[in-house]
Amino acid sequence: MSRIAGRTIHGLHDRDERLALAGRGTDLQLMRESNWLLVLNYVREHGGSPRAEIARQTGLSRTTIGNIIDDLLAEGLVRESGSERADTSGGRRVVPVHFNADVATIIGIALGRHRLIMVVTDLSANILGRTEVPFPAYQGPDTCLPLLADAIRTFIMAQGIPWAKVIGVGIGMPGIVTDGVCLAPTIPGWIGTNALQRIRELVDLPIYLDNNAKLGALGESRYGNARDVESMLYVRVGTGIGGGLVLNGQVYRGGAGSAGEIGHMVVDPHGPICLCGNTGCLEVFAGKAAIIEYVRARQPAVQDIVTVLQLAQAGDAVALAALHRAGASIGAVVAGLVNFISPVLIVVNGSTLRAGELILAPLRDTVLAHSLPTPRAHTRVIAGALGSNAVALGGVATVLDAVFRDGRALHTLATTTAPVYK
Residue 49's domain spans which residues? Predict the structure, then answer.
């Protein structure tokens, strides 16, 4: 079963449970909606199929397919174009049905400690526009959330997109985010903030919020180097260190929604105090601040990671040692996860990955040296393909999953018109 089909069926099961509570009067409508979504998602994944082929593959009658395709055409969600012969003997012509990815757009956002990265995509996650702007997250949510809302509005208007054509905004931010509430003090002043609710109050659009590493994992799984990989461990290395685990195309969240906090796995119980309150966490050895501090203790003029990377690329021994120490520390933690989870692929991403093999090589070498032979033989460590767009594209994937699991937002595309700003 394909990932799209699996997500669709899962969504339909959820809806079955909800509508069953309303009684039999909903059965016919439920069946129509389920068939409508089944056909739409089939066309999304198998664009260019004629109606007869869609009927065969979905198990629905040609009459039902005809009615659904006509509805989808009227709503602008599919288009028919081109033609091909039904068989080589010169039979009647059939017209392929294609998904219309241009009917709506999605905004994906990586909310960082110092900057926002925003992308706008079509419904196939093709990037149509991108911007990167400063963002003072350390000033707290009261200051920053209105700035975020303004940035979203400015970006949409700058792209020339009608407000009504935006069907959702997916946002990734640092720290543990459960039901929209920030539960970890990754950014001082944000703990306990219901960021999701407050953003929804400021922006009149469907908003989805999650941890940035989880969305980075989802982005790489759908659109990057981990496509079609059944199990993938994502490691995000930057100011903080986060992780995401993707199993069968879905991000594993854990019982409290906090799975993936590898930056707070202990490397040395007697090490420095971490922001989380524990001592010796991976982040205090391999986060951006730890790398800078290692070099600055020996070369006081160094003040930022850009300078460290420039020195390392020029062959500076101290800068190289700092990156090697960080990579090896991450590798030691990842080796334990390889033994425990046995992922097929380990994808490493984040701003510190601008160092390339200077940090990736010691990470990879440590994983290979300290993991067991069997799981080691079935995993690879690679850099991510999406770079700084990974989290934002994970936000896009989150919106797509929600929209194509439910479908109600798609029905409104043909009727909504006026932009609404708050």
Answer: 3-99
CB atoms within 10 A of CB 142: 10
Distance in angstroms (rounded) separating the CA atoms of residues 188 and 277: 13
**Is position 291 within any domain?**
yes
What the block records as the tokens of 370 is 């300290």
Its sign, for the CA torsion 354, 360, 361, 362, is: positive
Tens digits of residue pLDDT in 99-151: 999 999 999 999 998 999 999 999 999 999 999 999 999 999 999 999 999 99
d(CA 216, CA 219): 5
For 147-193, the pLDDT digits (tens) are: 999 999 999 999 999 999 999 999 999 988 989 999 876 788 898 99
Whether 187 maps to a domain, the answer reads: yes
In the chain, DSSP finds a helix count (H) and a strand count (E) of 15, 17
| 189 and 174 co-located in one domain | yes
Amino acid identity for residue 154 in this structure: T
Residues 232, 246 contacting (CB under 8 angstroms): yes
The model's pTM is: 0.87
Number of domains the chain contains: 3
* Cα 159 from Cα 169, distance rounded (Å): 15
Q: Is residue 398 part of a domain?
A: yes
Q: Is the pLDDT of residue 406 over 50?
A: yes
Q: For strand 166-173 and strand 207-211, is the pairing parallel, antiparallel, or unpaired?
A: parallel
- The pLDDT value recorded for residue 28 is 77
Q: For residue 230, give every residue at least 6 positions away whose Cβ sits within 8 Å of its Cβ, in sequence order, or none.
A: 247, 248, 249, 344
Sequence-separated (6 or more) residues with CB below 8 Å from residue 34: 12, 15
Distance of alpha carbon 317 from alpha carbon 294, whole angstroms: 12
Sign, Cα dihedral of 209, 210, 214, 216 = positive
Residue 267 has pLDDT above 90, yes or no: yes
Residue 77 to residue 32: CA distance in whole angstroms: 16
Q: Average pLDDT of the chain? A: 88
Higher pLDDT, 405 or 216: 216
